[in-house]
From TrEMBL:
InterPro entries hit by this protein: Ester_Hydrolysis_Enzymes (IPR051532), SGNH_hydro (IPR013830), SGNH_hydro_sf (IPR036514)
Domain of life: Bacteria
Limits of the SGNH hydrolase-type esterase domain: 28-187
Gene3D superfamilies per the UniProt record, alphabetical: SGNH hydrolase
GO molecular function: hydrolase activity, acting on ester bonds
Protein name in the entry: Lipase-GDSL family acetylesterase
Length: 243
């Protein structure tokens, strides 16, 4: 009889306090993306938009505007120098860093929006150089690199007016070629979550700050600039808090 009462009590506890509550990760995601940002912009706002939040991990995706935005080009050498300064500033504060190479672009649409003559090389070839810079900064303890650019390329993305990942006329009614769709943001969030878990970089109660430009910001999708809606910080938060 006493055993039956114990079982009943346990059942009531699990109804009132579901078991997933006991194992909830409670991971916080902060969206610190700003549209149009270059690596210099990110470097200049570390003291205001990153350090005060005391994140455990910063996920940095930056470089598209440095090399491809013809209204604000910085060039590769300056980009690399800024990237090194950003990483060193965070590492000095014992903040872990995951570097993400920016996704490839649909060059057809990019050339419609920017002056092709201002590019010294094909846009996607220039983006590959960002991956090379990021790889050189990897260390065992504080800095990891996930080649998001290559992961999408091997999936055949972008595929002009065919793929579901990068905004185009067919999937979003936009002649864009740079920003991602909600489907695309969910896809990359799942990739990032899997990568972080493979290195045991996901811990309960941790605070993750997503830093970057309009791709991190989530331009043109629900919840832009936040960790809600259809931004990649939202999908990443949901994925990491599932286990």
């Amino acid at each position: 009889m006493e055993i039956n009462k114990l079982y009943l009590l346990i059942g009531v506890v699990f109804i009132l306090f579901p078991i997933n509550k006991f194992f909830a990760q409670n991971i916080t995601l902060i969206n610190a993306g700003i549209s149009g940002n270059t690596s210099l912009d990110v470097l200049n706002r570390l003291s205001s938009d990153v350090i005060p939040f005391e994140p455990d991990l910063v996920i940095l995706m930056i470089g598209t505007n440095d090399l491809l935005n013809t209204n604000n080009l910085l060039g590769y050498k300056e980009y690399e120098s800024n990237l090194v300064e950003i990483v060193n500033a965070l590492r000095e504060r014992c903040i872990k860093i995951l570097l993400l190479s920016p996704p490839p672009v649909d060059e057809v649409y990019l050339y419609q929006r920017h002056d092709k003559r201002k590019y010294k090389n094909r846009p996607n070839k220039m983006l590959n150089k960002i991956s090379e810079s990021m790889k050189r900064l990897v260390d065992r303890e504080y800095v990891k690199f996930f080649d998001l650019n290559n992961e999408l390329l091997v999936k055949g993305i972008p595929y002009h007016n065919k793929d579901k990942v990068i905004m185009n006329m067919k999937n979003s009614g936009r002649e864009d070629g740079v920003h991602l769709t909600p489907f695309g943001y969910r896809l990359i969030a799942n990739m990032i979550a899997k990568y972080l878990k493979s290195y045991n970089w996901v811990l309960p109660q941790m605070k993750i700050l997503c830093l970057g430009d309009s791709i991190t910001y989530g331009k043109y999708v629900l919840g832009e600039g936040t960790s809600t809606g259809h931004t990649y910080p939202f999908f990443l938060k949901r994925k990491l808090n599932q286990s």
